[in-house]
Design goal:
By secondary structure, this protein is mainly alpha-helical. It is built from nine helices and four strands.
Length: 203
């Protein structure tokens, strides 16, 4: 039976609010989809054609994703998992452990790979590096190295955009799942402890 401190409950609520923003983003709310198909060019070569999200809706979605993705945010994925794991019983801990494992396996895995050239010849980026190159190098321009990586990725054209959108779409599913777990844990705490849970001082 979970019981959270006031500080923990505030952070869990911040996660629920961030997930709500994600779910209300037009790409998610309207169930927009990505697609890829082969097409024959005028020269007879097979080329890939990609259907991706419009840039502004995608940027809006990614900014909401950032609230859970970035380490220094109150609703950061890993830290929220730690709160749930510490306070919960076996079923809750198991659910959090399974979700965290799936999340990290995807981010660090080979589902999407880009082999860079130029100054980064021999460097291969997976889902985590791809998203962070866009986030820190292409959107906020905070990291010079990632900015240079982003410039190399842009050379892949629509293939890079498609890969980036696939990564964010998958991250969104993990975050929505975490939001469900958190909402369930908060509701269970309220059911078991009532108003006393809301009156507990922070630690």
């Amino acid at each position: 039976m979970p019981k959270f401190s006031t500080t923990e409950r505030e952070r869990l609520t911040a996660l629920v609010d961030a997930v709500r923003q994600i779910e209300e983003a037009s790409i998610v709310a309207e169930g927009r989809l990505l697609s890829m198909r082969g097409a024959i060019s005028p020269t007879g070569e097979v080329e890939q054609e990609y259907t991706v999200f419009d840039s502004e809706p995608f940027r809006s979605l990614a900014m909401s994703v950032r609230l859970i993705y970035m380490n220094d945010e109150p609703a950061n994925f890993a830290s929220i998992c730690n709160v749930l794991h510490k306070a919960g019983e076996k079923d809750l801990r198991d659910a959090v452990t399974d979700l965290r494992k799936a999340y990290n396996t995807f981010l660090n895995g080979p589902t999407i790979r880009f082999s860079l050239h130029g100054d980064f010849e021999g460097t291969t980026l997976g889902p985590r590096e791809l998203f962070e190159a866009w986030l820190y190098g292409g959107t906020f321009h905070q990291d010079p190295k990632r900015k240079a990586m982003y410039a190399e990725l842009v050379k892949f054209g629509p293939r890079f955009t498609f890969g980036l959108h696939v990564v964010v779409t998958q991250i969104v599913q993990f975050f929505i799942h975490l939001g469900f777990i958190v909402s369930t844990a908060l509701a269970e705490e309220q059911r078991l402890h009532g108003s006393s849970a809301l009156e507990q001082p922070g630690r």
